[in-house]
TrEMBL record:
The keyword Transmembrane helix is assigned to this record: yes
Listed GO MF terms: FAD binding; oleate hydratase activity
Gene source species: Pseudomonas antarctica
Pfam family, one: MCRA
GO terms for biological process, alphabetical: fatty acid metabolic process
Keywords, sorted A to Z: Membrane, Transmembrane, Transmembrane helix
Protein name: Oleate hydratase
InterPro entries the UniProt entry points to: FAD/NAD-bd_sf, Oleate_hydratase
Record's keyword annotation contains Membrane: yes
Domain of life: Bacteria
Chain ranges passing through the membrane: 20-37
Amino acid sequence: MTGKKHDWETTSANEPDPRFYVVGGGIAAMAAAAFMIRDGDVIGSNITLFEQRDAPGGSLDGAGSAQEGYVLRGGRMFESKYVCTMELFASIPTLDGTTTVTQETLAWNERMHTSSKSRLARNGVRETAPAFGLTESDILTIERMAIESEETLGRTTIADQFSVSFFQTQFWLMWCTTFAFQPWHSAVEFRRYILRFAHMVAGFNRLEGIMRTVYNQYDSLVRPLHKWLVDRGVVFQLGSCVTDMQLHEQGGSKCVKRIFYECNGEQACVEVGVRDYVLVTLGSMTEASSLGGMDKAPNLQGKAIEGAWALWETLAKGRPEFGQPHAFSSHIDATKWVSFTTTLSDPVFLRRIVEFTGNVPGEGGLITFPDSNWLMSIVVPFQPHFIDQPEEITVFWGYGLHVDAPGNFVNIPMSACTGREIMTELLGHLQFSSDSQSILNSAICIPCMMPFITSQFMPREPGDRPQVLPEGYKNLAFIGQFCELPNDVVFTVEYSIRTAQCAVSSLLGLKRHPPKVYKGATDPRVLFKAFKALHDIGN
């Protein structure tokens, strides 16, 4: 730093520079480090991220090879109104340094517009721009929820608000599979989604407005951001699991004094100075994830003895201002689902899927099979999907929401299926029987069970999620999917990055604050288009 620019900076030559400790190595933690450097003029070497895994990125992961099979636990939807994400990555160069990540993403989506010709597929036949099929009662309920307060909706579920027939509509089929909602999920979060994505309701049955990164989000977002941080000296302490923190109160003010963690089986402690700051990523959507294989089903696991959930539970004991982790982490049967990543060395599947969908890879987006007992969906992205992916290799991803139901073509619950059985089920729905054996012979399908993947959607009340800056703490902030921000929606990269920017700007007293959440629902033009779409006028 050259010259004092911020109130938090060292004022005396005898005082050490403040240190910044971030618990977690996912997108929220890395974004926080980037905002510290870019907006707060923090020296990178004064920032340490503690990450339990052996790689950064958190839930935005991507790994594997053509020989062993690629793996993506999941991907996140992008769209142009993710203002915090776009603004951050406008400062981050791509890996090759030729442009910024935001410029690359925008240019890519100018070239590759999403417009699905096969959003739903039944009996081997694609459906282009399916009608929503909502009744007037359904639409009135959506409109009522949009104007009701979150306090009024409280801990109710989506099923508490709608009639049973709503969940048979094609609107619900497309909405729940695009965003991974279940009827027992939070009515409050459903309301937030309706308001947040009101501008996308028109065209939703063609997935118009959804954007993609050039490669998977690990290669396109995490790796460039990680490189930018490492180049500036940020310390990534991998394989380090934070287990507890010592909090101190004096004169009505509270602060973090020590961070306890485990690394390589050894217990360790960091002393937090009076001028230091601590940011904690709460909870984890992908903790206890389990991978299977072509001939192996993944295991369903519970909370780790040490990990993100255990840390939050430890910190929240006797501290209601730290939220209620059990509201989100204690319902595995309601929050789990199975995803799968398939790597193919034979081009026949890609050729058949292009013929079936009418879309080139990357143009169509999610394809859902409404007749699937698993409510299975797949997406075939532009190839290559990984930076190191050979030209002759195809990679696609899919998931199922009803993982405890037996399949239509394999009489086994998806949760107990091997990759081979999942592919057999998929090929049955596609009716690719003439090529099914050659496709199976060239496939490496890796299923992934995620017990907490929709935990952030569970019904909640005010106080279940702590504030980004818990009241009374002078050097502590929370980031990630499980802290409270008004208006924005969880299960998005945008939410994680917004919490990081809020935390950094508030803790450091910066003048640069996060851009406001886009509110299309206040625009009469957006509302008119959404009204027409909900009534299937012009769809």
